[in-house]
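Read as amino acids, tokens; as here:

___
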Amino acid sequence: MNEIAKKLISWYLVNKRDMPWRNTTDPYKIWLSEIMLQQTRVAQGMPYYLSFINAFPTVHDLAKANEDEVLKLWQGLGYYSRARNLHATAKFVSRELNGLFPNNYNGLLSLKGVGDYTASAIASICFGEPKAVLDGNVFRVLSRVFNIDTPINESIGKKEFALLASELLDKDNPATYNQAIMEFGAIHCKPQSPLCNNCILIDSCQAYKSNRVKELPVKLKKIKIKKVYYNYIVPISHNNDTVLVKRPPKGIWANLFEFPLIESPKEITLSQLVLSDKLKQLGLESNTPVLYNENSIVHKLSHRHIYTKFWIIDVDEISNNKVSFTEIEKYPVPVLIANFIKDFCKNN
């Protein structure tokens, strides 16, 4: 075992956080945790993991659930394609593989929603296959220890780091090593304020010696943020019913529910809203919308910032897509909608 791997494993055995997926080698539970923790902090993901395990103790239970149940439990975690892929894979494993996950990297990689990192993590942790993981934490540790400024989000950088990660892997104990380097990056070699003065790798860390810790890793900015404006129409009847519609099966928030939406490239006024075709389609052109929130609610996604206003319209009754406010919390909705519902119900 190389010296860096030895130090990381020793550190991990003393400092690792106690998390439920670390007390098992069940591929279902490891897979579930890894999918949930993609682009999600442990503190945020933990309650969701526990809720899923409670609701769906086995892959067969998850496979039997309907999509709305899965999306509702996922509500608030974001990147909902993860939940849909999770459900699709559960059905495949349950029905086609008799509930048994593939026991090697290549087999795992064939599952929907499972990429190189997730396949490596499951293969090493559950089956002892010597496959090195490469996530944001590992990129950060390696780039700093070896003072590498090749961009991590370019193909040349991914290849360079993948080769290095594989060279450092403790092939006799890949499960512990992989978890050790990820945990070290998460709680010690942190993105901001890393604990350099009390670091087991300080003698090896080239970035520390060169005073470049804050500069690494290098990631090129490629995403252009687009501003969009959402105007949600919230009809409310005398019986306290409203309207929810299901979003398309592709795009952001696919298959989640929302109020009727008017999307625009810029902010629109009440007079523009009244003239919109959407109100005519809903049969509400003779009703006057009342703005619920004067200032737009800004919801930030990785590729767009959504500026949102909610417009309340009082109506006598609702016939199509009717949902009672007493039942509305049962529907899977984007967190933006969930926050509005919570605030509206509290104040009305």
In short: The chain is about 45% helix and 15% strand. The chain has a mean pLDDT of 93. Residues 81-96 form the longest helix (16 residues).
